[in-house]
Design goal:
single chain; 359 residues; alpha/beta; Rossmann fold; Heat Shock Protein 90; 2 domains; five-stranded parallel beta sheet; five-stranded mixed beta sheet; elongated; HATPase_dom
Length: 359
């Protein structure tokens, strides 16, 4: 998009500032500039700015203090009216704090009038439009993924219902030696159904649609179950429980606590280059918390990656860490009010530690 293809809405009541900004917008240093520069629609009040909104507006430059509105309320009103149009706030030297608040409310950026130059103004406009475009694309993708998630969970529940139904029918025909295995199949199917429901709730929590419903959960029972699954899945690995495991301890969590333990156990094996991956698990109660440690004999994790391995500050699947598994662990543990970190194991490998508050 060239500069003369842009249409900007400037909401500013000071004629001097209006002329200065218009001059900056047609400055010769504007990238990809064609004759004339961007079209500027001027409004001298908030009400005029809201009325001037149209599909052709690419960005709004908004003064914080107008004849009919002042402060953060000006930003909120314009954001409500402009919807997906990017907004850049213009502030005075004494209003920088409000500029920061405006960004927190949803503005793309803010500029201090006395510090604006042609280059800074033009660069801010370009970046704001690009970021807004990326955000719209991200929202579109998230909507598509949300629909896909609903479809997949629906189909999984239907197929699992078939498995459970046939498994229950087989109970009268299975010999005594196979009853335990059939029972495990049915229990696993029930667990999958519960997980599809919990995953739906988890996504709503991440989207801010609902709060996490935590309840007292037995970490020992969940951990033992996941260790048995890991042994069945990774027959080449050795899983051992070290020390005494306390009974009757509960933590604040939900059904996805199993996913936390499962991902840590799988991570200890899948990122291990040893012929026989060794995974040692321990659980310790310390005051008001419960700490679970999963140690492996792999290559270990360099100090400069001990934070990024969880994908902290990254966009989920775009994380540079070991994958979405550890990012999910970090997210869930944070929801539970706990902490997760990684340390060096001796002589080689890593120790992932989770600390959760007791219920």
């Amino acid at each position: 998009m060239t500069s003369d293809e842009l249409t900007l809405l400037l909401v500013e009541d000071n004629p001097t500032d209006v002329r200065l900004i218009e001059e900056y917008l047609i400055d010769s240093q504007w990238e990809q500039k064609s004759a004339g520069g961007p079209e500027v629609i001027h409004a001298s009040s908030l009400s005029e700015g809201i009325e001037a909104q149209s599909e052709k507006i690419d960005l709004v430059l908004l003064d914080l203090n107008l004849p009919d509105s002042a402060g953060i309320e000006t930003v909120q009103s314009m954001l409500a009216a402009s919807e997906t149009v990017p907004l850049v706030v213009l502030t005075g030297m004494n209003d920088q704090r409000l500029g920061v608040k405006a960004v927190e409310e949803g503005a793309q950026d803010y500029l201090v009038k006395d510090e604006v130059s042609p280059e800074l103004l033009q660069r801010t406009i370009r970046y704001a439009i690009e970021r807004a475009s990326q955000e719209r694309e991200l929202r579109r993708r998230n909507r598509e993924l949300a629909v896909l998630n609903q479809i997949v969970r629906h189909d999984i529940r239907n197929d699992v219902s078939v498995i459970t139904g046939w498994g229950t029918t087989l109970e009268d025909y299975v010999e005594p030696g196979g009853e335990e295995y059939l029972s495990r199949v049915i229990d696993a199917a029930d667990h999958i159904t519960q997980l599809t429901e919990t995953v739906g709730d988890f996504l709503k929590i991440l989207d801010g649609e609902q709060d996490a419903e935590l309840r007292p959960s037995d970490p020992v029972r969940v951990l033992r179950a996941e260790i048995e699954k890991a042994r069945a899945t990774h027959s080449e690995a050795e899983f051992t429980i070290e020390g005494e495991v306390p009974d009757g301890v509960t933590v604040e969590a939900n059904q996805l606590l199993s996913s936390v333990f499962r991902n840590l156990l799988n991570n200890a094996v899948t990122h291990n280059t040893e012929d026989t991956p060794q995974v040692a698990i321990s659980l310790e109660v310390a005051g008001d918390t419960v700490q679970v440690a999963v140690a492996d004999n792999g290559l270990g994790i360099p100090d400069d990656r001990k934070e990024t391995v969880f994908g902290r500050g990254q966009m989920g699947l775009e994380s540079p860490g070991s994958g979405i598994g550890l990012h999910l662990v970090d997210t869930l543990v944070d929801i539970y009010g706990g902490e997760v970190w990684v340390e060096d194991n001796e002589p080689t490998g890593s120790v992932f530690r989770i600390e959760l508050p007791r219920a």
